[in-house]
Amino acid sequence: PFGTIAIQLAQHRGAKVISTAHSLEDKQYLERLRPPVARVIDVSCGKTDVAESCLEETGGLGVDIVLDAGVRLYSSEDEPALKAQLLPHKHDIITLLGVGGHWITTEKHLQLDPPDSHSLFLKGATVSFLNDEIWNLSNIQQGKYLYILLMVILHTKSNLSRPQLDEPIPFYEAKVSMEMVQKDQARKRQVIQF
Asked: Which parts of the sequence belong to the Alcohol dehydrogenase-like C-terminal domain (predicted)?
């Protein structure tokens, strides 16, 4: 859901969007979006090079902004197989960034080695961290947060963006679902049907 909203808001602002899909259903959903996504990279088979595909799409210049939902920090043998297959490696993201690019990451344990920092320095690129909970902790940011929520509501109301909802969970399963979320066994956001 986060990626879908980010894609639609970026398109509304005039950005050319390149996205990854982790399943055939996700790929089909992204291809049906209007306006269409410039390119959907299917990473479900694990053989696709995301950096190479992005550089090909941009004529070798790289992208201006990368918004990730997690990255692989180490080589494939050091991480779980499923995570290693679906997430891009941090070196791939640094490679596909263009000059003056911005990398926005949700990875809270990101570790950049000196060669990574040097590559970012040479490109004039920046790294930012996206932490959902931080908005609620800072009183200064409340106005920005409320404005973003207002824009999302207005875009949804005017059909500029369409949320991708998961299957709703019946109310009687809400407690079990919430326990799974707290133990990191399920997605953070769930739709509960009353």
From this structure: 3-69
